[in-house]
Amino acid sequence: MIEGGRIRLNRWQQAAVAVGSAVGALLNPRRADLIAALGETTGKPAFERVLERMKRSPEGRAVLLERPRVVSAEVGHVRDLPPNTFGAAYANFMASRNFSPDDRPPVRFMDTEELAYVAMRAREVHDFWHTLFGLPTNLIGESALKVIEFEQMHLPMCLLSVIGGTARFSERQRSLFFQHYFPWAIRAGMQSTDLMCIYYERNFHEDLEDVRRKWGIVPAPVPPKQNVT
């Protein structure tokens, strides 16, 4: 979980890392390490609230106790599941984009092992959420998912990412996002179950539409024009 080791920072150091990461991420949104650092240095209170919610949830407590990891060694078997299942849909999502679950940066700036795991869990289940909500990984899709994540976890990084993402939209993208994706994402984030309190790995074998209904997830709307990047 913390292969790179944790780094303890005072408040001034946290602020410096946060500002530097925010500027760097705006200049180069593909820098996952900077986005991760921004999330950690600005999101401790939010992660603490998520941790408390998980402790109050039977399924969330099971996740905290067993600490499952979304890495190839643990989730590689989903490629062999029937095509209608949640696990197969996730495998297809990853394969179609040549993504690996092992590519997530380690957690470095959380104070405790427990908080570090919560931050890592949020990072690792991100692609489950793409799969469940039917969101692409383009600028619009990522921005819409960040709206849902903000509704769910209230991480400042999510709000900053939406602001930064929409600033880079073309006029056509901006119109599409605010007319179709943004209103849906607000509703989707509010009406779905607590996404951090789900033991996703126990549901890989279930039908994708069944788990969507069980968790109150409504897939993204089909926009009027496809293939917007």
UniProtKB/TrEMBL annotation:
EC number(s) reported in the record: 4.1.1.130
Keyword Lyase applies: yes
A GO cellular component entry from the record: extrinsic component of mitochondrial inner membrane
Pfam families from the UniProt entry: Coq4
Reactions catalysed: a 4-hydroxy-3-methoxy-5-(all-trans-polyprenyl)benzoate + H(+) = a 2-methoxy-6-(all-trans-polyprenyl)phenol + CO2
Compartment(s): Mitochondrion inner membrane
InterPro entries: Coq4 (IPR007715), Coq4_euk (IPR027540)
Top EC group: lyase
Pathway in which the depicted protein is active: Cofactor biosynthesis; ubiquinone biosynthesis
Protein's organism: Carpinus fangiana
A GO molecular-function descriptor: zinc ion binding
Full protein name: Ubiquinone biosynthesis protein COQ4 homolog, mitochondrial
PANTHER family, per database record: UBIQUINONE BIOSYNTHESIS PROTEIN, UBIQUINONE BIOSYNTHESIS PROTEIN COQ4 HOMOLOG, MITOCHONDRIAL
Keyword field: Lyase, Membrane, Metal-binding, Mitochondrion, Mitochondrion inner membrane, Ubiquinone biosynthesis, Zinc
Family label: Belongs to the COQ4 family.
